[in-house]
Amino acid sequence: MRPAMDLIVQRPEGLYCPPGDFHIDPWRRVDRAVITHAHADHARPGHGHYLAAAPGEGLLRSRLGEGITLQTLAYGETLEHNGVRISLHPAGHVLGSAQVRVEHEGRVWVASGDYRTTPAGAVPDRTCAPFEPVRCHTFITESTFGLPIYRWRPDAELFAEINTWWARNAEAGRASVLQCYSLGKAQRILANVDASIGPIVCHGAVEPLNRAYRAAGVPLPETRLVTEVSDKATLQRALVLCPGSAVGTPWIRRFGDVSDAFASGWMQIRGWRRRGGQDRGFVLSDHADWPGLLSAIGASGAERVIVTHGSVPVLVRYLQEQGLQAESFETEYGDEA
C-alpha cells in the first residue's frame, strides 16, 4: 500500500496541492491559483487562473485588474478539480477572505490564509463574514500574533477610544490622522466610528477599496478625497484615514496641524509606539490574537498543524507540548506592518 502524499506541500512558487495541481496564494506566477484574500502578499498579479470567494471579487479586480481570469465560489460551495474537492469558508479577516478546504481520498486539509476569530459574546464584524471553524485532519495556520501577550480588547472599548480622540481633536481644530492598512483595517474603522463627529477623508489608496466594499453591500459612512474638500475648517475637524506611506508627503501637509495615530496589533508593544512617534497607538488587528489562534486550531479538530508566517517557533513548540503533531512551512507572506 503506497503511503498517502501530503495534500499541500511547499514549492518555490508557494503552497502547492500535488493531486489537484494548483497553488494556494502563490508568490510566483503559476497557472492556477486559489486565493484566500486580496491583500498583496496573498493575491499577486500574473497568474493564469484565479479562484476565490465571491464576496472578494470586487477587491481582487480592483487590485489585480478587471481583465484577470477569475472564477468565484460562494462560501461552502464545492468544486472538483483533478479529483480534489475544493471549498472556501469564511476567515473573518477582510471582505472575501477565505480558508481553503481541500479533500482527496478521504483526507481533508485546510489552509487558513489570514484569519480573525470572533470571541464568544462579541458582536461580529460588519465588514466581512465571521470566521467559521472547518474540521480537518491537517490545519495550516498563520501565526502573525502567535505570542501569549497578544490579546485583543473588545471592539466597543477600542472604538470608543478612537471616537473620543477624534472628538477632542475636532474641538481643538486639529485633524485626526489615523494611519492604517488601506484594505480591511480602514473599512473596519469606517464601519465602527461615530460619523456624526465630523467629516471623514480617505487617502487615494483607501477610497477605491471603500467603493468595492460598498458595491459588495457593506454599509460605510460617507467619505471624501482631500481634493473634494475646499473648506480648511472642514479638514481641521476631519478623521483622516491613510496608509503610513502618506506621512511626510505633500498630501498630509494639506491638513495643517494634526494629531496622528496608528492602528495595528503591533501597538500592543510599547516599543512599537515609541518608534513610530505617533501621538496615539490603537491596538486594532484583523488577525487572530493568541486565544483566537488556539481556539481556531482546537475547533478544527486537526491532529497535525502546520504553522506559517509570524511567531512560528513559539506556536509550534506550544502545540507540540499539547500533544499535537506541529511543524512549519516557510512562506513569503507578510504581516500588517
TrEMBL record:
Enzyme Commission code: 3.1.-.-
MF terms (GO), sorted A to Z: exonuclease activity; ligase activity; RNA endonuclease activity
Annotated transmembrane regions: none
InterPro entries the record matches: MBL, RibonucZ/Hydroxyglut_hydro, Xnuc_lig_assoc
Domain of life: Bacteria
Enzyme class label: hydrolase
Alphabetical keyword list: Exonuclease, Hydrolase, Ligase, Nuclease
Matches recorded under NCBIfam families: Xnuc_lig_assoc
Record-given protein name: Ligase-associated DNA damage response exonuclease
Organism per entry: Hydrogenophaga crocea
